Amino acid sequence: MRILVTGGLGFIGSHTCVELLNENYEVVIADNLSNSSIDVLDKIEKITSKRPKFYEIDVCDKEKVSKIFNENEIDAVIHFAGYKAVGESVTEPLKYYRNNLDSTLTLLEVMKKEKCHNFIFSSSATVYGSPKELPIKENFPLSTTNPYGTTKLMIEQILADLSKADKDLSIIVLRYFNPIGAHKSGLLGENPSGIPNNLMPYIVRVADKKLPFLNVFGNDYDTPDGTGVRDYIHVVDLARGHLKALEKGANFKGIEYYNLGTGIGYSVLDLVKTFEKVNNVKVPYKIVDRRPGDIDACYADPTKAYKELGFKAIYGIDDMCIDSYNFIIKNKESHK
Ligand code: WQD
Question: Which of 35, 246, 271, 277 is 20 to 30 A from 111 via CA?
Fold first, then answer.
Protein backbone atom coordinates (compact mmCIF):
# COMPACT_ATOMS: atom_id res chain seq x y z
CA MET A 1 0.00 0.00 0.00
CA ARG A 2 1.19 3.54 -0.78
CA ILE A 3 0.41 6.17 1.85
CA LEU A 4 0.50 9.95 1.37
CA VAL A 5 1.61 11.56 4.62
CA THR A 6 1.01 15.32 4.73
CA GLY A 7 3.24 17.07 7.27
CA GLY A 8 5.41 13.96 7.13
CA LEU A 9 8.59 15.79 8.17
CA GLY A 10 6.99 17.15 11.35
CA PHE A 11 7.31 15.74 14.87
CA ILE A 12 4.49 13.15 14.77
CA GLY A 13 4.52 12.79 10.97
CA SER A 14 8.19 11.81 10.76
CA HIS A 15 7.86 9.19 13.51
CA THR A 16 4.80 7.79 11.70
CA CYS A 17 6.72 7.62 8.38
CA VAL A 18 9.44 5.56 10.13
CA GLU A 19 6.87 3.07 11.44
CA LEU A 20 5.17 2.88 8.02
CA LEU A 21 8.46 2.22 6.20
CA ASN A 22 9.46 -0.40 8.79
CA GLU A 23 6.18 -2.17 8.04
CA ASN A 24 6.95 -2.05 4.27
CA TYR A 25 4.38 0.55 3.32
CA GLU A 26 5.33 2.81 0.39
CA VAL A 27 5.45 6.39 1.73
CA VAL A 28 5.02 9.70 -0.12
CA ILE A 29 5.53 12.87 1.96
CA ALA A 30 4.06 16.31 1.27
CA ASP A 31 5.44 19.04 3.53
CA ASN A 32 5.98 22.80 3.06
CA LEU A 33 8.78 22.87 5.67
CA SER A 34 7.01 25.69 7.58
CA ASN A 35 7.55 23.83 10.87
CA SER A 36 10.09 21.15 9.91
CA SER A 37 13.37 20.81 8.04
CA ILE A 38 14.54 18.82 5.03
CA ASP A 39 17.24 17.06 7.07
CA VAL A 40 14.44 15.03 8.71
CA LEU A 41 14.13 13.22 5.36
CA ASP A 42 17.77 12.11 5.67
CA LYS A 43 17.13 11.00 9.27
CA ILE A 44 14.12 8.89 8.17
CA GLU A 45 16.32 7.27 5.51
CA LYS A 46 19.13 6.69 8.02
CA ILE A 47 16.75 4.91 10.44
CA THR A 48 14.86 2.82 7.86
CA SER A 49 17.36 2.58 4.93
CA LYS A 50 14.46 3.74 2.74
CA ARG A 51 13.95 7.25 1.34
CA PRO A 52 10.28 8.27 0.96
CA LYS A 53 9.33 10.24 -2.14
CA PHE A 54 9.15 13.89 -1.05
CA TYR A 55 7.15 16.83 -2.42
CA GLU A 56 7.90 20.26 -0.94
CA ILE A 57 4.44 21.69 -1.39
CA ASP A 58 1.73 23.57 0.45
CA VAL A 59 -1.27 21.25 0.79
CA CYS A 60 -3.51 24.27 0.08
CA ASP A 61 -2.17 24.24 -3.49
CA LYS A 62 -4.69 22.11 -5.41
CA GLU A 63 -2.55 21.83 -8.54
CA LYS A 64 0.45 20.56 -6.57
CA VAL A 65 -1.66 18.10 -4.55
CA SER A 66 -3.24 16.79 -7.79
CA LYS A 67 0.26 16.31 -9.22
CA ILE A 68 1.12 13.96 -6.35
CA PHE A 69 -1.95 11.82 -7.12
CA ASN A 70 -1.21 11.90 -10.87
CA GLU A 71 2.34 10.71 -10.29
CA ASN A 72 1.61 8.16 -7.52
CA GLU A 73 -1.08 5.56 -6.92
CA ILE A 74 -2.16 6.73 -3.42
CA ASP A 75 -4.15 4.13 -1.41
CA ALA A 76 -4.64 6.18 1.78
CA VAL A 77 -3.84 9.59 3.23
CA ILE A 78 -2.67 10.44 6.75
CA HIS A 79 -3.19 14.19 7.19
CA PHE A 80 -0.88 15.80 9.76
CA ALA A 81 -0.15 19.09 7.97
CA GLY A 82 -1.52 22.06 9.88
CA TYR A 83 -0.64 24.81 12.33
CA LYS A 84 -0.83 23.66 15.94
CA ALA A 85 0.24 26.37 18.39
CA VAL A 86 -2.69 27.21 20.68
CA GLY A 87 -1.34 30.62 21.73
CA GLU A 88 -0.53 31.69 18.16
CA SER A 89 -4.02 30.63 17.04
CA VAL A 90 -5.53 33.10 19.54
CA THR A 91 -3.49 36.03 18.18
CA GLU A 92 -3.72 34.96 14.50
CA PRO A 93 -7.08 33.15 14.03
CA LEU A 94 -7.39 33.91 10.30
CA LYS A 95 -4.02 32.28 9.62
CA TYR A 96 -5.24 29.13 11.42
CA TYR A 97 -8.69 28.95 9.82
CA ARG A 98 -7.31 29.63 6.35
CA ASN A 99 -4.46 27.12 6.56
CA ASN A 100 -5.98 24.26 8.55
CA LEU A 101 -9.36 24.29 6.80
CA ASP A 102 -8.14 25.15 3.30
CA SER A 103 -5.46 22.44 3.28
CA THR A 104 -7.94 19.80 4.43
CA LEU A 105 -10.68 20.81 1.96
CA THR A 106 -8.16 20.87 -0.90
CA LEU A 107 -6.90 17.42 0.02
CA LEU A 108 -10.41 15.96 0.32
CA GLU A 109 -11.47 17.43 -3.03
CA VAL A 110 -8.47 15.93 -4.81
CA MET A 111 -9.03 12.58 -3.07
CA LYS A 112 -12.65 12.59 -4.30
CA LYS A 113 -11.55 13.33 -7.85
CA GLU A 114 -8.88 10.64 -7.70
CA LYS A 115 -11.21 8.10 -6.01
CA CYS A 116 -8.97 7.70 -2.96
CA HIS A 117 -11.29 6.64 -0.14
CA ASN A 118 -9.09 6.15 2.94
CA PHE A 119 -8.42 9.14 5.18
CA ILE A 120 -6.85 9.35 8.64
CA PHE A 121 -7.12 12.72 10.36
CA SER A 122 -4.81 14.10 13.04
CA SER A 123 -7.22 15.53 15.60
CA SER A 124 -6.62 16.45 19.23
CA ALA A 125 -8.01 15.93 22.73
CA THR A 126 -8.44 19.68 22.73
CA VAL A 127 -11.84 19.08 21.06
CA TYR A 128 -13.14 17.85 24.44
CA GLY A 129 -12.63 21.29 25.99
CA SER A 130 -12.79 21.16 29.79
CA PRO A 131 -14.18 17.65 30.48
CA LYS A 132 -16.90 17.34 33.14
CA GLU A 133 -15.58 13.90 34.15
CA LEU A 134 -12.51 11.70 33.64
CA PRO A 135 -11.26 9.59 31.95
CA ILE A 136 -12.44 10.99 28.62
CA LYS A 137 -14.44 8.74 26.25
CA GLU A 138 -14.93 9.39 22.54
CA ASN A 139 -18.66 10.07 22.98
CA PHE A 140 -18.09 12.93 25.43
CA PRO A 141 -19.40 16.40 24.58
CA LEU A 142 -17.16 18.45 22.29
CA SER A 143 -16.27 22.10 22.77
CA THR A 144 -13.22 24.24 22.14
CA THR A 145 -11.65 27.29 23.75
CA ASN A 146 -9.19 28.44 21.07
CA PRO A 147 -9.09 28.79 17.27
CA TYR A 148 -6.59 25.92 16.89
CA GLY A 149 -8.96 23.53 18.66
CA THR A 150 -11.91 24.94 16.74
CA THR A 151 -10.22 24.17 13.41
CA LYS A 152 -9.91 20.55 14.56
CA LEU A 153 -13.57 20.47 15.61
CA MET A 154 -14.70 22.08 12.34
CA ILE A 155 -12.72 19.55 10.31
CA GLU A 156 -14.25 16.71 12.32
CA GLN A 157 -17.70 18.11 11.41
CA ILE A 158 -16.71 18.38 7.73
CA LEU A 159 -15.58 14.75 7.81
CA ALA A 160 -18.83 13.62 9.48
CA ASP A 161 -20.89 15.36 6.78
CA LEU A 162 -18.66 13.93 4.04
CA SER A 163 -19.07 10.43 5.45
CA LYS A 164 -22.86 10.80 5.28
CA ALA A 165 -22.66 11.90 1.66
CA ASP A 166 -20.13 9.38 0.38
CA LYS A 167 -20.60 5.82 1.63
CA ASP A 168 -17.38 4.68 -0.04
CA LEU A 169 -15.25 6.71 2.36
CA SER A 170 -13.30 5.22 5.26
CA ILE A 171 -12.45 8.02 7.70
CA ILE A 172 -10.64 7.56 11.00
CA VAL A 173 -10.27 10.51 13.36
CA LEU A 174 -7.46 10.14 15.90
CA ARG A 175 -7.65 12.41 18.94
CA TYR A 176 -4.13 12.75 20.34
CA PHE A 177 -3.55 13.52 23.98
CA ASN A 178 -0.10 14.95 24.78
CA PRO A 179 2.60 13.55 22.48
CA ILE A 180 6.15 13.73 23.88
CA GLY A 181 9.37 11.70 23.64
CA ALA A 182 11.53 10.93 20.60
CA HIS A 183 12.80 8.07 18.46
CA LYS A 184 15.22 5.89 20.45
CA SER A 185 17.96 6.49 17.86
CA GLY A 186 18.06 10.17 18.90
CA LEU A 187 17.76 11.07 15.20
CA LEU A 188 14.14 12.29 15.35
CA GLY A 189 12.47 14.37 18.05
CA GLU A 190 10.71 17.56 18.99
CA ASN A 191 12.77 20.69 18.58
CA PRO A 192 10.51 23.72 18.18
CA SER A 193 12.18 26.98 17.17
CA GLY A 194 12.07 29.85 19.68
CA ILE A 195 10.74 29.59 23.24
CA PRO A 196 8.70 26.36 23.49
CA ASN A 197 4.99 26.62 24.29
CA ASN A 198 4.67 23.02 25.43
CA LEU A 199 5.90 21.54 28.68
CA MET A 200 8.36 18.84 27.63
CA PRO A 201 10.36 20.91 25.10
CA TYR A 202 10.61 23.61 27.77
CA ILE A 203 11.81 21.16 30.45
CA VAL A 204 14.43 19.86 28.02
CA ARG A 205 15.73 23.40 27.36
CA VAL A 206 16.04 24.04 31.12
CA ALA A 207 17.83 20.72 31.68
CA ASP A 208 20.18 21.63 28.82
CA LYS A 209 20.80 25.03 30.50
CA LYS A 210 19.43 26.95 27.50
CA LEU A 211 16.73 28.43 29.79
CA PRO A 212 17.22 29.26 33.51
CA PHE A 213 14.08 27.66 34.96
CA LEU A 214 10.65 26.28 34.13
CA ASN A 215 7.56 28.41 34.83
CA VAL A 216 4.97 26.09 36.34
CA PHE A 217 1.65 27.60 35.28
CA GLY A 218 -0.29 27.39 38.54
CA ASN A 219 -0.35 24.98 41.48
CA ASP A 220 -3.93 25.64 42.58
CA TYR A 221 -5.69 23.27 40.18
CA ASP A 222 -8.02 20.55 41.42
CA THR A 223 -5.30 17.86 41.11
CA PRO A 224 -3.23 15.84 43.65
CA ASP A 225 -0.33 18.32 43.75
CA GLY A 226 -2.21 21.34 42.35
CA THR A 227 -0.38 21.40 39.00
CA GLY A 228 -1.98 20.54 35.65
CA VAL A 229 -2.50 16.86 34.84
CA ARG A 230 -2.21 15.52 31.29
CA ASP A 231 -2.08 12.17 29.47
CA TYR A 232 1.42 12.08 27.99
CA ILE A 233 1.87 9.51 25.22
CA HIS A 234 5.20 8.52 23.63
CA VAL A 235 5.37 9.80 20.05
CA VAL A 236 6.44 6.32 18.83
CA ASP A 237 3.32 4.84 20.45
CA LEU A 238 1.28 7.53 18.75
CA ALA A 239 2.92 6.64 15.42
CA ARG A 240 2.10 2.94 15.94
CA GLY A 241 -1.52 3.94 16.55
CA HIS A 242 -1.70 5.29 12.98
CA LEU A 243 -0.69 1.94 11.55
CA LYS A 244 -3.42 0.26 13.57
CA ALA A 245 -5.86 2.86 12.19
CA LEU A 246 -4.69 2.12 8.62
CA GLU A 247 -5.36 -1.58 9.13
CA LYS A 248 -8.84 -0.83 10.45
CA GLY A 249 -9.53 1.61 7.62
CA ALA A 250 -8.69 -0.96 4.98
CA ASN A 251 -11.63 -3.11 6.13
CA PHE A 252 -14.18 -0.47 7.08
CA LYS A 253 -16.49 2.14 5.55
CA GLY A 254 -17.82 5.13 7.46
CA ILE A 255 -16.25 7.33 10.14
CA GLU A 256 -14.88 6.41 13.57
CA TYR A 257 -13.16 8.36 16.35
CA TYR A 258 -10.41 7.11 18.66
CA ASN A 259 -8.54 8.54 21.63
CA LEU A 260 -4.81 7.92 21.43
CA GLY A 261 -3.58 8.22 24.99
CA THR A 262 -2.22 6.00 27.76
CA GLY A 263 -5.14 6.49 30.16
CA ILE A 264 -2.69 7.69 32.84
CA GLY A 265 -2.52 11.33 33.97
CA TYR A 266 0.69 12.92 35.21
CA SER A 267 1.06 16.38 36.76
CA VAL A 268 3.61 18.99 35.73
CA LEU A 269 5.64 18.25 38.87
CA ASP A 270 5.38 14.49 38.26
CA LEU A 271 7.00 15.09 34.86
CA VAL A 272 9.70 17.39 36.29
CA LYS A 273 10.63 14.95 39.04
CA THR A 274 10.65 11.95 36.69
CA PHE A 275 12.75 13.83 34.15
CA GLU A 276 15.31 14.77 36.83
CA LYS A 277 15.48 11.23 38.18
CA VAL A 278 15.84 9.26 34.94
CA ASN A 279 18.26 11.75 33.34
CA ASN A 280 20.18 12.66 36.50
CA VAL A 281 19.76 16.40 35.81
CA LYS A 282 18.21 19.33 37.64
CA VAL A 283 15.18 21.20 36.35
CA PRO A 284 14.74 24.33 38.48
CA TYR A 285 11.22 25.76 38.43
CA LYS A 286 9.08 28.59 39.75
CA ILE A 287 5.36 28.46 40.42
CA VAL A 288 3.72 31.31 38.50
CA ASP A 289 0.16 32.27 37.54
CA ARG A 290 -2.07 29.93 35.57
CA ARG A 291 -1.86 30.12 31.76
CA PRO A 292 -5.22 31.41 30.41
CA GLY A 293 -7.28 28.62 28.85
CA ASP A 294 -5.53 25.75 30.65
CA ILE A 295 -7.72 23.05 32.20
CA ASP A 296 -7.11 21.18 35.49
CA ALA A 297 -6.83 17.65 34.17
CA CYS A 298 -7.19 15.69 30.96
CA TYR A 299 -6.57 11.99 30.35
CA ALA A 300 -8.02 9.37 28.03
CA ASP A 301 -10.13 6.28 28.39
CA PRO A 302 -8.09 4.25 25.86
CA THR A 303 -10.52 1.30 25.82
CA LYS A 304 -12.13 1.89 22.41
CA ALA A 305 -8.76 2.10 20.57
CA TYR A 306 -7.69 -1.10 22.31
CA LYS A 307 -10.91 -3.01 21.55
CA GLU A 308 -11.38 -1.82 17.95
CA LEU A 309 -7.84 -1.07 16.74
CA GLY A 310 -5.87 -3.39 18.96
CA PHE A 311 -3.87 -0.30 20.01
CA LYS A 312 -2.24 0.04 23.44
CA ALA A 313 0.57 2.40 24.38
CA ILE A 314 3.64 0.46 25.56
CA TYR A 315 6.10 3.20 26.61
CA GLY A 316 5.91 4.74 30.08
CA ILE A 317 6.74 8.20 31.41
CA ASP A 318 10.35 7.19 32.17
CA ASP A 319 10.92 6.28 28.49
CA MET A 320 9.31 9.54 27.38
CA CYS A 321 11.68 11.55 29.60
CA ILE A 322 14.79 9.56 28.68
CA ASP A 323 14.09 9.70 24.94
CA SER A 324 13.21 13.43 24.97
CA TYR A 325 16.51 14.29 26.64
CA ASN A 326 18.52 11.81 24.55
CA PHE A 327 17.34 13.56 21.37
CA ILE A 328 18.62 16.92 22.59
CA ILE A 329 21.96 15.54 23.79
CA LYS A 330 22.48 13.78 20.45
CA ASN A 331 21.63 16.91 18.44
CA LYS A 332 23.47 19.62 20.36
CA GLU A 333 24.58 21.42 17.23
CA SER A 334 21.03 21.90 15.93
CA HIS A 335 19.48 22.60 19.35
CA LYS A 336 19.83 26.31 20.02
C1 WQD B 1 0.89 20.73 29.57
C2 WQD B 1 0.82 21.15 31.03
C3 WQD B 1 0.45 23.50 31.35
C4 WQD B 1 4.30 24.76 29.64
C5 WQD B 1 -1.43 21.57 24.05
C6 WQD B 1 -2.52 21.70 23.03
C7 WQD B 1 -2.86 20.34 22.47
C8 WQD B 1 -1.61 19.69 21.92
C9 WQD B 1 -0.57 19.58 23.03
C10 WQD B 1 -1.45 20.17 19.59
C11 WQD B 1 -0.28 22.16 31.31
C12 WQD B 1 1.82 23.10 31.88
C13 WQD B 1 3.23 24.01 30.07
C14 WQD B 1 5.10 25.47 30.58
C15 WQD B 1 3.70 24.62 32.35
N16 WQD B 1 -1.10 20.42 20.84
N17 WQD B 1 2.93 23.94 31.40
N18 WQD B 1 4.75 25.37 31.91
O19 WQD B 1 -1.70 22.69 26.87
O20 WQD B 1 -2.03 20.23 27.55
O21 WQD B 1 -1.90 20.81 25.14
O22 WQD B 1 -0.31 20.92 23.50
O23 WQD B 1 -2.13 19.29 19.16
O24 WQD B 1 -3.81 20.48 21.44
O25 WQD B 1 -3.68 22.19 23.66
O26 WQD B 1 0.14 20.96 26.55
O27 WQD B 1 2.54 20.97 27.06
O28 WQD B 1 1.36 23.20 26.65
O29 WQD B 1 0.93 21.92 28.78
O30 WQD B 1 3.42 24.56 33.56
O31 WQD B 1 6.08 26.19 30.23
O32 WQD B 1 2.04 21.80 31.38
O33 WQD B 1 -0.18 24.43 32.23
O34 WQD B 1 -0.81 21.87 32.61
P35 WQD B 1 -1.44 21.24 26.64
P36 WQD B 1 1.32 21.82 27.22
Answer: 35
